[in-house]
Write a structure and sequence with these properties.
The chain is α/β, with parallel strands linked by helices. The chain has one domain (14-306): TIM Barrel. Helices cover 34% and strands 16% of the residues. An 8-stranded parallel sheet has the order 2-3-4-5-6-7-8-9. Helix 5 (152-167) links the parallel strand 6 (136-138) and strand 7 (173-175). The longest helix is centred in the middle third of the chain and has 16 residues, at 152-167. The chain is globular, with a radius of gyration of 19 Å. The chain starts with 5 loop residues before the first strand and ends with a strand. The protein binds N-carbamoyl-L-aspartate (NCD) and zinc ion (2 copies). One zinc ion (ZN) is lined by residues 109, 139, 176-177, 222. One of its GO terms (molecular function) is dihydroorotase activity. Belongs to the metallo-dependent hydrolases superfamily. DHOase family. Class II DHOase subfamily.
Length: 346
Amino acid sequence: MTTHPTLTIRRPDDWHVHLRDGAMLEGVAPYTARQFARAIVMPNLSPPMTDVAGVAAYRERILAALPAGSDFTPLMTLYLTDHTDPDEVERGHGAGVFTAAKLYPAHATTGSAQGVTSVATIYPVLERMQKIGMPLLIHGEVTDSHVDIFDREAVFIERTLRKLVADFPALKIVFEHITTQEAAQFVESGGANVAATITPQHLHINRNAMLVGGMRPHAYCLPVAKREKHRLALRKLATSGHDRVFLGTDTAPHARHLKESACGCAGLFNAPYALESYIAVFDEEGALDKFEAFASENGPRFYGLPLNEGTVTLEKSGVTVPGEIAAGGTVLVPFHAGETLAWRLV
Ligand SMILES: NC(=O)N[C@@H](CC(=O)O)C(=O)O
Ligand SMILES: [Zn+2]
Ligand SMILES: [Zn+2]
């Protein structure tokens, strides 16, 4: 009998997920709950989650969608708009309903039509968040039609993020799903209050995966995958052991027919094999000793939350990802569809 190498780590969390609502929520939530103890749940539903009552009710729907016996904890977020009231933010945070608030520049991504038109309009909200110690999560892309889509993250750093960080030196900021060398450098050289999440897809693929040999909608997400040098910079940062960089899958399910379309939706469904996808990268980079910090320690430390008790074990015995997964009365194509990954969650 051959014995496979194994790796046991403290139970991990996912600091960026889209669980959706209704039948889709019921279909996808068990995949995240199987791999992670907690997850930051993004608020870009339609309509978006803009108040305490709405977010509290959404949390109940998530808990109701979990498999019997699951101890998964959804950590909820508020969707910021031009009209967000600082008092509502503080009330929801104080009541334990909002873990964080999410800044979507208006029209940057899926479900961002009611996002913030100019960061200046929410300065009173950011003042309050800084005061009460509530993290700000940012989809960091400009939406200016004159800016090339591959440059939108790097331009956001220069036009918006540098000033934001300077104006709110004590505000905890998570630069979500970073995709560029510029973002990696910004976070690495930033202060103790600036962190980033990195998705599995941006560690595995560059833009060729989307465009070579035909248009491949299942590799399309936002921010869009960039050229190879950016992927390599992200891999270096993720596997470096840097303590302000952590796991956030950005699992974002869209029905197959809505992705395979003349105007396909942005987002990858990576929840079912997320840990398998990440650990492949750490193994390839010779950095398995850094995986636990990235997956299970850096996130809770940055958010000021306790580390999870318990462990999960991964085994280097291989797992083949199915070509499609039925969920929510429709069909989803998972990230790595049809591929065999070296490690599997035991
Ligand atoms: N990442 C994506 O491509 N899509 C996300 C939105 C987001 O995180 O920007 C979605 O909700 O579908
Ligand atoms: Zn986003
Ligand atoms: Zn997202």
